[in-house]
Amino acid sequence: MRLQGSYVCMPQPDNTAEVSQSEHKGQMIACALCQSTGPVHYRVRSSVIKDWTLICPQCWSRIEHQPGYQYGGTRKASRRQRKR
Q1: Which pLDDT score is estimated for 51?
Q2: Where are the alpha helices (DSSP H) in 1-56?
Q3: Are 43 and 16 in contact, with CB atoms under 8 Å apart?
Q4: CA 66 to chain CA mean position, Å
Q5: CA 21 – CA 10 distance, rounded (Å)
Q6: H or E segment at 7?
Q7: SS3 at position 80
Q8: Where are the domains of the chain?
Q9: pLDDT tens digit string along 32-69?
Q10: What is the CA radius of gyration of the chain?
Q11: Beta bridge partners of 58
């Protein structure tokens, strides 16, 4: 973890933008910043976080105010379990 301006930069795993098929089948995905699992994650990036990253709602409230913030969608675990 390092400080950049008034924002805290957390180290990111290299594969944050890619989600394997097995993770879509009922498994919870971990937040790229705090590693907590949950049913809802937001796909975001900013000038500090260059690649698209899945983060939890708690971390999202800190990231949304960063310069260059972009929202890329919501991932819901319950959506993956529905049959079409």
Answers
A1: 94
A2: none
A3: no
A4: 14
A5: 26
A6: strand 7-9
A7: helix
A8: 2-81
A9: 999 999 999 999 999 988 999 999 999 999 899 999 99
A10: 13
A11: none
